[in-house]
Design goal:
alpha+beta, 136 residues, single chain, globular
Length: 136
């Protein structure tokens, strides 16, 4: 319980936590990359690797969640990475892959962590076909 209170106070005092993907999008500048491949393939690469590398328990009270959804009828897919700690969720990464007339466009945002630039770099690598997980 003390950990949850500490995290809540830290988030409020630093103004750095994002309790929704929209909060993260409002705070973090995007990186945008285009690809010649179909958006569904880029989405699959990023989603599959992110789930394999990040989803799971960190401790008895905390876990990383990778939420992803492909909206084929709308021509895009979305993914978020968040840390759930004692019921509080903090979003660290959001990715949107959209269908384009010739290929696809990936927009990634990352914030609320010192690893923000590393997360964006990983996403671009995964979209390009890299399947490696980061060393922890």
């Amino acid at each position: 319980m003390k950990i949850a209170i500490f995290i809540g106070i830290a988030c409020l005092s630093l103004g750095a936590c994002s309790s929704t993907p929209a909060d993260l999008e409002a705070k973090a500048p995007p990186i945008v990359q285009t690809y010649t491949e179909n958006y569904q393939e880029i989405y699959r690469r990023v989603s599959t690797t992110a789930k394999r590398c990040f989803a799971g328990n960190v401790s008895a009270y905390a876990s990383f969640a990778v939420d992803s959804e492909l909206y084929s009828e709308l021509g895009y897919g979305e993914l978020t990475l968040s840390l759930i700690n004692m019921g509080t969720r903090n979003y660290y990464l959001s990715v949107r892959v959209e269908k384009q007339p010739a290929g696809s466009k990936l927009t990634a945002r990352s914030g609320n962590t010192l690893a923000s630039e590393r997360y964006k770099s990983l996403v671009l690598g995964w979209a390009g076909g890299d399947q490696n997980c980061p060393a922890i």
